[in-house]
Structures are given as C-alpha cells and as structure tokens.
Amino acid sequence: MGKIILGLAAPHNPNITSRPDKMSPEVQSKLDSAFGHLKKGLSEASPDCLLILTSDHVTNFFYNNAPMFCLGVSDTCAGPAPKELSELNIPRATLKVDTTMAKGLLHYGIESGIDFSYSQEMILDHAFMVPLSLLTPHMDLPIVPLHINGMLPPRPTAARCLRLGQQIGEYIRNHYDGKVAVLASGSFSGDIGGPKMGSIDTKLDLEFLDLVKDGKGQEMVNKATADTLERAGVANEILIWITLQGVLGNLKPSFTDYICGKDWSTAATLATWQPNPR
Amino acid sequence: MSLYQVDKLLFALFNDLELQEKYKQHPDDVLKRYDLQDFEIKALRELNAGALYRMGAHSFLLWQFSRLMDLKPAIYFKQVRGE
User: Fold this and answer.
1) Nearest by Cα to A28 from A261, A263, A273
2) Residues 6+ apart with CB under 8 A from B66
3) Domain range summary for chain B, segments of one domain joined by +
4) Is the peptide bond before A145 cis (omega within 30 degrees of 0)?
5) What are A62-96's pLDDT values in tens digits?
6) Which residue numbers in chain B have pLDDT < 70?
7) pLDDT score, position A21
8) Which secondary-structure segment (H or E) carries A259?
9) What pLDDT, on a 0 to 100 scale, did the predictor assign at position A1?
10) Do A62 and B8 touch (CB under 8 A)?
11) A166 in a domain, yes or no?
12) What one-character DSSP code corresponds to residue A84?
C-alpha cells in the first residue's frame, strides 16, 4: 500500500529564479523562508517519488494537440526548455521518472474513468523547474510529471480536477508501493500577457487561500466557477490546487504563506500538508 | 481558421530558437510559411499587440512574442488594454 506523506504547493513565477536581484530584501527573505520551510519538509519526509501537478506553459502542447491531462512516462525527463535556459538561472537537468507510478497511474486512470494522455518526450518547462530547483536542488528525487491543461482553452472543469485528484489518491493508496509527496505548482491568479497583467488580484487570491486553509475541495470547486477562472487570468492554476486537494482529501494545510512581490504579475502562495504528522 | 495560423506562428517562435533568429533577420521569409491574411501579417509586422489581442491571439504567446521583439512592456499593455 502506498502512502501520501506530504503535500506541497508553490509558485513557479520565473522571476523568482531569473530576477532575484529585482526583489526587495523583504520579499526575498520571505520567499527564502517559505521555500526553505517546504524544502525542509520534503527532505524530512524523504519520499520515494514526487508527483508534480502543473500546467505545461505552451512548451509541449499547443492547439494542434492539446491534452487535458498528460503523464510523462519516459525513464527520464529534462528541463528547463532550451528557450528558457538563458533567463531562468536553472541549469539543465535530467530527472529520473518513477515509471512504476507514471505507468501504473496511466493504466489505473484508463480503467477507472480518467483517460490520461501520456508522453515519452515531456519537456519540463519553468512550471516544473522553478519549484524543483528550490525544493530539490540536486534534482535527485524521482518524479512523475502530470500536465493539467490550464493554458489552452477549453480547460477541464474544477469538478473534474477534484475527481482527478481523488483518483490519483486512490491509486497511490491502493495500487502503489512507496511513499509519495505531491507538489502543486501554480498561483491562484495571474493574467500573463492579458490586460490584467501587472495588477495582482489580492482579493481573489485571499478568498481562495481561505478555502485552501479550510481544506474543503468541494468548496474550492464551488468557488472556481467559469467567472472566477476568467477573472483569475490566462493560466487557470486554481485547477492545479484543486487537483492537489483532491489527492489529499479534506486535509487542512499545516503551513501557508502569501507573498506579494512588487512588479510581479502573480503573488506567491506556498503551502504544506502533512497527512501523517509525526 | 486563420487565427490558428497566427497562434501557430507565435507558438513556433516561442519554442524554436533558430526560427527566432530567422524571424528577426527575415520576417517575411518566415511569415510566408503560414497561411495568414494580409491584416494579420500587417499586425505582426507592425508589432501591433492590440490588434493581435483583439483578433483573439493567445495572450501568453503574444506576450512572449512582444518580449522576443523587444516591444516595451508599457507599450504592449497600452495596446492590449486599448488605451
């Protein structure tokens, strides 16, 4: 029987690694502290595998072929994408994929109602690599990358994402043998390239953070209406957080932090969940 | 259908470093590979982010295109917001 031993959520705003000098010392200190908290939790939990939930940022997928949910199932995955290397300040790395989980989850999904797409060539763009570089800088933890389409409309519904997360949880608990940490990579709102870019929707962010603190997935789904997702902007990363809540059941986080960086397009929300507190 | 070709070009420019260089040096050679209408070519050549946004170009890809082409963010946002 597998165990979900840790939930993590973190932003992947590329400014975090590409332009740290542009942050105020206060924001830098808060981010260092919050990422340090998550990194310590991950190190102490010592999982066998890190399942990463995020949305590909139009690197692997485009309108010519746009899956809703895609698992990386190759033996290894590499990132950042070549286009990002000059700016991101993250060295190119090749990470081992836990193919037992990736392929097991693929088959479990097909048998139980989530027809995952899968890829033997998934590139880990900044949505994966920014939090990975800060949480497991040696890049030595086996991963399972799962793309949840937030960038290319139409997107999956919030209810579908909650169900996806629940099924991932069922798979891990009943069909996987090992300790799993799950990372949601994304922010609540951010309209990259859209007319709202540059103004962080703090009101929406904090309303959603309150729901995260309550740990009730269904209430998060109720909040994530089409109007809310439209207001939250282009990337729809609320869906990533809802998927994680589905994996964790109605568990409340043990740690949250909300950090607004000046001149950023998104705020940074970080959180930790401990299903089996010691 | 044509708007898809605009996004397809922006997607290719976002991900293909060689194409980025070709586009910067010889944009017309790249543009002719796509099935674009004249008003789309005009907006792309003029870096008219506002027109491209209002046509429905993907905003994330449009932003990356503006960065590639060194369009000043202040001008980009003014155009996209229709100010």
Assistant:
1) A261
2) A193, B47, B49, B73, B76
3) 2-80
4) no
5) 999 999 999 999 999 999 999 999 999 999 999 99
6) 1-2
7) 84
8) strand A255-259
9) 85
10) yes
11) yes
12) G
Q: What pTM does this model have?
A: 0.97
Look at domain B2-80 and name its CATH class. Answer: mainly alpha
The DSSP result for A147-193, as a single string, is EE--SSSS---HHHHHHHHHHHHHHHHHH--SEEEEEEE--S---TT
Domain that holds residue A173: 3-273
pLDDT for residue A261: 75
User: Which residues in chain A are closer than 8 Å to B63, comparing Cβ atoms?
Assistant: 192-193, 197
Amino acid, res. A71: L
Is residue A274 scored above 60 in pLDDT?
Answer: yes
The DSSP H or E segment spanning A213 is helix A202-214
Picking from B14, B63, B81, the nearest residue to A192 by CB comes out as B63
Give the pairing of strands A179-185 and A255-259.
unpaired
**The CATH number of the domain where A13 resides is what?**
3.40.830.10
Nearest CA in chain A to B82: A195
Give the per-residue pLDDT at A277.
55
Is it true that the peptide bond before A25 is cis, omega within 30 degrees of 0? Answer: no
